[in-house]
Design brief:
This protein is 87% helix and 0% strand. It is mostly helical. The chain has one domain: Up-down Bundle (Methane Monooxygenase Hydroxylase, Chain G, domain 1). It is elongated, with a radius of gyration of 28 Å. The N and C termini lie far apart (95 Å).
Length: 134
């Protein structure tokens, strides 16, 4: 990449802060999607989030921030990371719910496999007994 292309791609300090604010807003939407169990919207929002992070990472490398701008960036990053942690907590809880449901389903399936033929035979026997009774 030429020096001119690098400058064209580099962001100003204000653009960097605006980009972090946009990431904060997107992380807020992701958290809302998790809380409302809107998994499709979460996946779509997260895909955009990852693209935004990658682009910001590559374009802010040469941007110089003054002390107040660095402090603001740190605050934004802290809030983004807090939301990320909350999203992860919600996703872990959901994974545990799904694991419990899968476990219950497997146990039911195993019970049906083990006792299903016996249950059917006992129903057939009971049916025959009922036919003979007045």
């Amino acid at each position: 990449m030429t020096e001119i292309e690098a400058r064209r791609r580099a962001l100003t300090a204000e653009q960097v802060l605006l980009a972090y604010e946009a990431l904060l807003a997107r992380s807020g939407r992701m958290l809302d999607h998790v809380r409302h169990h809107d998994w499709d919207a979460l996946v779509e929002e997260e895909a955009h989030y990852l693209v935004d992070v990658e682009q910001l990472s590559s374009r802010e490398q040469d941007t110089v921030l003054d002390a107040p701008q660095r402090a603001r960036k740190a605050q934004l990053l802290e809030r983004i990371l807090e939301r990320d942690l909350e999203i992860r907590r919600c996703l872990v809880a959901r994974r545990e719910e799904l694991a419990a449901l899968i476990g219950t389903s497997k146990r039911k399936r195993d019970l049906r496999r083990s006792y299903g033929p016996q249950e059917a035979a006992s129903r057939d026997t009971a049916f025959h007994l009922d036919e003979d009774t007045p």
